[in-house]
Amino acid sequence: MTVPLPIIWMNGPFGIGQTQAAQVLHTRLPGSFLFDPEEMGRALKKLTPRFSGDLQTHPMWIPLMLDALQFAVKQADGPLIVPMPLTDVARHRRLLSGLKDRGMAVHHYTLLAPVEVVQARLRRHDPPVSWEAGEVEQRLKAFSGEAFARHLTAGERSPDAIAEEIAADLGLTLKPAQKEPLRWLKALGSRR
Question: CB of 54 within 8 A of CB of 84?
Fold first, then answer.
């Protein structure tokens, strides 16, 4: 019997750094694949007349995510890394249990940080995101719940430190961290 490759789901409020940590994990984990659910959302918005809401509320989002992740797991040479904020407990449960029902091993991590840290990161985002302090607190409180456990403290930790904690938890071996002084600049260029 072959053991299914894991899906590493990185959750947390927008601006917490899950995408950066996921990119680092992907770069340092040979054979891994970075699966971006935002691409699915953009496609749904373009292909669905009169839909303009949160992509996760689209009636086709969960079924398409389940099919796409199942297909990607079969094609991948290593773990799938999925950075995606998923706050709604019912949707979260439906998606993760759907993956498990299909025989996929899902390791879920939620990144948390103090409100001030998240707000500072949102202000540095390009373009800046201006959420009210109450909304950030509300989302952090939701993510602190048992449904979203395993919690990792992001705070002022580097994406490398977060990737290393996840890899250690899963018993995965990472390539050494790159010590290039302008690595962040290269990452910015690859996002465009």
Answer: no
Q: pTM for the complete prediction?
A: 0.85
Q: Is the separation of the CB atoms in 64 and 37 below 8 Å?
A: no
Handedness of CA 62, 191, 143, 177 (dihedral sign): positive
Residue 73: HSE in the Cβ half-sphere, 13 Å Cα cutoff? 21
Q: What's the CA gap between 83 and 170, in Å, rounded?
A: 17
3-state secondary structure of 18: helix
Tokens representing 68 are 């796409």
Could you tell me the two tokens for 101? 């029902």
Angstrom CA distances, 169 to 31, 60, 151, 162, 165, stand at 18, 33, 12, 11, 6
Q: Where are the beta strands (DSSP E) in 76-180?
A: 80-83, 105-112, 151-153
Per-residue pLDDT tens listing for the chain (192 residues): 344 568 999 999 888 888 999 999 999 999 999 999 988 888 888 888 887 777 888 888 899 999 999 999 999 999 999 999 888 889 999 999 999 999 999 999 999 999 888 888 777 776 666 665 567 888 888 898 888 889 999 988 999 999 999 999 999 999 998 876 555 555 555 544
What count of other Cβ atoms lies within 10 Å of the Cβ of residue 129?
Answer: 15
